[in-house]
Amino acid sequence: MKAAIFHGSGRPMSIEEVPTPVPALGEALVRVAACGVCHTDLHYLDHGVATFKAPPLILGHEISGTVESVAGDGPIQPGDRVLLPAVLGCGYCTACRSGRENLCGNLQMFGNHVDGGYAEFVVAPAAGLVPLPESLPLVESAIIADAVTTPYHAVVNRGQVKPGDQVAVFGCGGIGLNVIQIAAALGARVVAVDVRTDKLDWARKLGASATVNGATEDAVDKAVRAETSGGADVTFECVGHPSTQVQAFSSTRNGGRTVLVGYSPEPMLLNGGRVMFREMEILGSLGCRSLDYPRVIELVRSDRIQLTELVTARFGLDRINDAFDALRAGDGVRSVVVP
């Protein structure tokens, strides 16, 4: 099969012919329909972040496809349309048994611990595959695996957003825009913050009631507080930068909640006195629990959130490096690679 091979940070991926993987007992071979292009992969490609499995490695963790074959018995059958969760827990550790398998210490992530979806085929545990309804488009559904489920977990489980809440979202990339539309679908009033007018236009299309342009606004936190009657009930930082983390925290009302969704290796400057004296909450949010995938799929199936509109570009496997150039430039909302 053809696959895009990652050989290390600072090097473009190369398209190579590699053996088609053979599923072991309990695994399925999935013909990849599409794999979403994610900023996580840019951390490996551009910033020296190490993958758990050393290169050469096939990246890609937002995968949809069709089951080609299954080794063993079970409900999953050849021809089934499926979604592959970005990460799979072990099922037996304390985190998994308490329903927080996204924090599993033994988790396996596609395109990190094992080969991922920038290829014609991928193998996965059959029990972990999520069936896709016929009414959902197979290619566009690939982004559910991370770009939609990660925001769902952040908004519903970590942010605990309720109808009528004032919400501020910092960063209107693929993750931030889905935080916006999921929070709006739950009945929150959303203020979107970004430095690009095209991203803020997208934010309004997806449910933001107001926008703040960080490139032209001198005091972003003051602008957000003015839009939210003194501060947002919940703020989401989806950029992954210490400066926007501070802005998000400063935009949160007393007793409110700040959720860090974007990854940053740098320390955040935190006013611990305010955290204590104003009973502030600062929470991290990582990925999504497997039990939430059907809930997200139902939101898409019932048209409560948009999906196809968010996939703004498709790239063939041989153009995968062009796809990452587009991501670096901030073009569109979400691209997918179609083998």
Task: Explain how this protein is built.
This protein has 339 residues and is of the alpha/beta class. 25% of the residues lie in helices and 26% in strands. It has ten helices and 18 strands. The protein has helices at 39-46, 94-97, 149-158, 174-185, 197-205, 220-227, 242-250, 272-277, 293-301, 320-329; strands at residues 2-6, 14-17, 27-36, 57-58, 63-70, 81-84, 87-88, 108-109, 121-125, 130-131, 166-170, 189-194, 210-213, 232-237, 252-260, 281-284, 311-316, 334-338. Strands 3, 5, 6, 9, 10, 17 and 18 form a seven-stranded mixed β-sheet that branches. Strands 13-12-11-14-15-16 form a six-stranded parallel β-sheet, with helices on both faces. A three-stranded antiparallel β-sheet has the order 2-1-4, with no helix packed on it. Strand 12 (189-194), helix 5 and strand 13 (210-213) form a beta-alpha-beta unit. The chain is globular, with a radius of gyration of 20 Å.
Labels describing this entry:
339 residues; alpha/beta; seven-stranded mixed sheet; six-stranded parallel sheet; 10 helices; globular
Itemize the secondary structure elements and their pairings:
Blueprint: E1 2-6, E2 14-17, E3 27-36, H1 39-46, E4 57-58, E5 63-70, E6 81-84, E7 87-88, H2 94-97, E8 108-109, E9 121-125, E10 130-131, H3 149-158, E11 166-170, H4 174-185, E12 189-194, H5 197-205, E13 210-213, H6 220-227, E14 232-237, H7 242-250, E15 252-260, H8 272-277, E16 281-284, H9 293-301, E17 311-316, H10 320-329, E18 334-338
Parallel strand pairs: 11-12, 11-14, 12-13, 14-15, 15-16, 17-18
Antiparallel strand pairs: 1-2, 1-4, 3-5, 3-9, 3-18, 5-6, 6-10, 7-8
